[in-house]
Protein 1
Amino acid sequence: MAQQHGIIVLFDVENALRTRSLAGNTYWFDNMKLFGSTGEGTEHLVTIVPGTHFMDGSQATEQVLNWLPAALGAIPPTVPRNYLAEQERADDRRTLDQLASLNADGGVSDTDLKRLQKRVGKRARKPAGGRGLTAAKLLDVTGKTTSSAGAYNYPAPVITDITGPAVTEKIMYPAQYGSPDMIYDGWYWAATVDTSRPGEYPYTMHVQLHELIEQNDEMIWESVDLTCESTLKITTDPKRNGFTGAGLGLLPLPAVPATG
Amino acid sequence: MPPKTKQPERRPSRPVTITAVIDPVAALASENLDDSLYLYDTNKAAGSTGFGTPELHSRVTKGDTLLWNVIPLECETYAAITDIEIDPRVAEPTRKVYPGTDIVFWTAEVKQDLTEPLRYRISFLLGTVTTPFTPTARPALAGPADQAREGR
């Protein structure tokens, strides 16, 4: 099997929430530029899916796609996804330690209190019945506690579905999988591709962004569902021997290995 | 959904983030970064241009906090900003890490409004190569544009 495709979608979350649209607010990448993908880094990515077939026309390889969403202007995905939770806990521990030492001193100054209050920060609730985000302390884009609704780190966009001609025409079979890999929150979307029918097939990605709104003195994550589109370009070539470039068959090895 | 009528006043409580998306494998293979660097920022609404190229022009105003970070397309290959060279009268970027990690970002405050685009040099360390990679094309900071402000 060929290497798996990684398709990375970078979302300009701020602009998307402002305009309530993903048009012009997504940037797509894959790892197949060398093989002929076009539109890298734009919203018009065409992902090449090079397939192979046997002499009788039957499919010789299957291709696997993986999609990884990321938010522009947020803490980058190289920082583990549980980072926010870890950071929140570490921050609370520090705050408690300092609170304890305040009592020991006996005297409490206003500045101390203010500093601690700032550290306590604010928590955002998820809407009733909502899913995806846990109620957690707000952190800013550098991982520090913040109480400002204008400074919070954007949560990673969540892919909720993949549809469109590439799916209805049974070119790819996307599904969401669970993974022990914490970097992508334990969930990711992947698909296998039928490469026996070459052509260009568009597909639609359904994405949920999260906006922090203030309601009755509470912070609430409101989900905003949007869609964006991309394209797969399927090609198929005869399966050949990677060493000789010719048809399948025995490798050109000498019958007796050379000595030494 | 109709656009919201009330736009919050644009206070830079969130930094203007300039994100470098890097294909480290391609850059290491070709030994240069020119075709493997895609720059973006979060200030498109203010009129930033050159998205997806190494020649991003970021619209900034005096007092803005800037934050540069990296998203590698291959997360198992090391990629980080090693230096940003810019006129110190405009900004003095400093290297920081996300607390509790060794993942680098750079940050600076814009000290004055710009009348003309100011180019700067940004260098990266990739993989285990000790010589920094610097793209030939230069990104720039640009001052506030009047027409861009009206557009919002």
Note: The interface with chain A takes residues 1, 3-4, 7-8, 11, 13-15, 17, 19, 21, 23, 25-26, 38, 40-42, 44-45, 51-53, 67, 69-75, 96, 98-101, 103, 105, 107 of chain B (CB under 8 Å).
Protein 2
Amino acid sequence: MPMGHTATAQAGSGGLTATEHRLANGLRVVLSEDHLTPVAAVCLWYDVGSRHEVKGRTGLAHLFEHLMFQGSHQVHGNGHFELVQGAGGSLNGTTSFERTNYFETMPTHQLELALWLEADRMGSLLSALDDESMENQRDVVKNERRQRYDNVPYGTAFEKLTALAYPEGHPYHHTPIGSMADLDAATLEDARNFFRTYYAPNNAVLSVVGDIDPERTLAWIEKYFGSIPTHDGKQPPRDGALPGVIGEQLREVVHEDVPARALMAAYRLPHDGTRECDAADLALTVLGGGESSRLHNRLVRHDQSAVAAGFGLLRLAGAPSLGWLDVKTSGGVEVPDIEAAVDDELARFAEEGPTAEEMERAQAQLEREWLDRLGTVAGRADELCRYAVLFGDPQLALTAVDRVLDITAEEVRDVARATLRPDNRAVLVYEPTAAEADDAADADAKGAEQ
Amino acid sequence: MSETGVTMQFHPQPAAGTARPWAFPAPGRATLPNGLTVLRCDRPGQQVVAVEIFLAAPLDAEPTGLDGVATIMARAFSEGTDKRSAEEFAADLERCGATLDAHADHPGVRVSLEVPVSRLPKALGLLAEALRAPAFADAEVDRLVRNRLDEIPHELANPARRAAQQLSRELFPATARMSRPRQGTEETVTRIDAAAVRAFYEAYVRPAAATAVIVGDLGATDLDAVLADTLGAWTGTPAQERPMPPVTADDTGRVVIVDRPGAVQTQLLIGRIGPDRHDRVWPAQVLGTYCLGGTLTSRLDRVLREEKGYTYGVRAYGQVLRSGAEGTGAAMLAISGSVDTPNTGPALDDLWTVLRKLAAEGLNDAERETAVQNLVGVAPLKYETAAAVAGTLADQVEQHLPDDFQAQLYARLADTGTVEATAAVVSAFPVDRLVTVLVGDAAQIEEPVKALGIGEVTVVSG
């Protein structure tokens, strides 16, 4: 258990520090002390996400995440939830393209319990996994899919956009929720194999942040996790590399029962972890973040052609990141009018870049978002895991805001010029079917056109 | 790794260490010369400061036929002042790294500012300017009205929002403001103009009828000086107390289906009104409601989710609608969630069985103990951020509760027994006095729901 970095605050880290350790079985550990509140956050990132799934088994990583809460060798059924909540803790797990995370925030004096629980399922899940929990959680996840995506207006937009932006066969072509057919097809043996392949100490990073005694915490981690065997069954995910730009404008028109027309688009952007990605974040903030962004001013304030207009960024390390434009139209405004205005704004921005005031605003907004994320022990624990798993260095979490503040207006203009262009986007248009009922001319509305 | 091969070394479940004491923070309270009440709370380490402003401008004060004027006013605060245009105001605020949200609810209007502490003076100056001298320009108000009209179809399309609107319409008398959407309807919002917004502002918004809650790492800030230059410079006439109308509701057991042909799930919202935080039963009601449906190991999800797989999750909760010092307020007591369409009947059947069993057999000591441990134990986690503390302090202000209510609540929860918690939750959710709203496919769910005998079933269009 050699000590890694020493606990000396780096410039720009806001006084936060983190130390790194590695158990003999390969489990990486990151600790960060903060005694302001008597709480401690435990966060465990497994380096497996929906990008590791194979054809016909989409949604398996997320379904498996649910199974991790169904008991292990020493923990009965829902015991994980019961014990953490009964100790005054909060907990959950989430699955994304690139990782699966599990986290507990505990009152300080219950920290050891959370470590014991995480170790028990990392080492012994299969002794409790059975058909009954598999069938039950399959139904729960299918209802999660219905509630969050299928039964909500525009609920499947993100799924459609990623399917357009990342080509068929690409590891990011499908989203973590998976398809109903694949959820139905998953077997208990699939789940067992998934665990055997990916749930190993050497494929995980554990962070503990908050009101902790680092030496004692490390001793507990060694005690509970140290004997879990290493294994190396993991296959690397399929290569997510793609050309920097799509090269053509992709397009799908969806006719659905939605309340208003919408124009959405996914732009292919630089990988997370690069200066160019931070520059893209600033560009999207100037263009489509908050109430003083260029798109908001143009579409919502001036033209009054949209109810809402904004840009979001999905940072990805193993594939190009994704910039998500979302505009809901006002009243009877037609999509081509919106599209022309968006193109006009993006072209102008690519030409002139952000003003000094816009840079100041965007950097201040991103700085506050970082302060928010690092302002709780759980947020900090998650970011330390993120940088350790995706970029090999948890310390990068503590200086992330400095890197955003270091970006210049020229870099923002350059990334906009290179990426925010019509031949680098997948466009998704929503046309409401209810309106078509009045418009008898359009009879063959169903289905998507490319 | 193989199942027969190497395995880990197991250890017994560890015992808890010694708890470090924690208490919900006690704010300092003061009144500025202009009549503004200020609550402040220093939270070392919380670099993002949260400011909550409560304006005693309740929804029931909106003029007849102008539902939504409080909402438009709240939004118009950030659309320009006597010194800045709407765009300039938004840009200046965002250059502070700040966010500003405002919304109108039954007790009044809440304006929430979050900003890094280094830029607090500047952001508080902007907030004060917005409250003291809002422009309410015709063009900006007209735009907000049109924008609000555009939002309404989006809200109605959302099953959870649609269910909530229907439940309010069912529960409260048509004359009561609570029966109608908080942010107005198409008919009422269309009538709102800048003159109506200004008239509402002049009638209800003044420092003497407002409270500012400021929470965060304030150690290096001379807050008194900052306040004097900002919110302290706001002037207005003394406040007049506006009596609160009593809250009444018709909770005759019945079912309303909001028809959504083809919906793959049914959104369910089952509710009535009951005691608020001024009532002595509140801690027992919180405890019992948690045992019924606070988490996925509570009674409802243990059956509906973890045994049957009908849902991603069903929750029971009590949410205060409006409170007064005289105890005439009320909370919405509700159970909500979504279940897949074919299992709607069976899920409701199970839900009623859970309620009946609870009434017949009561809670047990173990689940009461777990609930107390959770509700009390999570407090330091829940209140780690400045925004969480500020939100609860402002809730207390708008509900006319003492500043130490939350701190005392934890002690009262710990003292509440199984019998009291049972009595409170059974009386909160009586099986024959629940109004059930189902947003779903009537063609598929109407007959199975009728067969349950949980009240008369009517169908309305989606």
Note: Chain A has 16 helices and eleven strands.
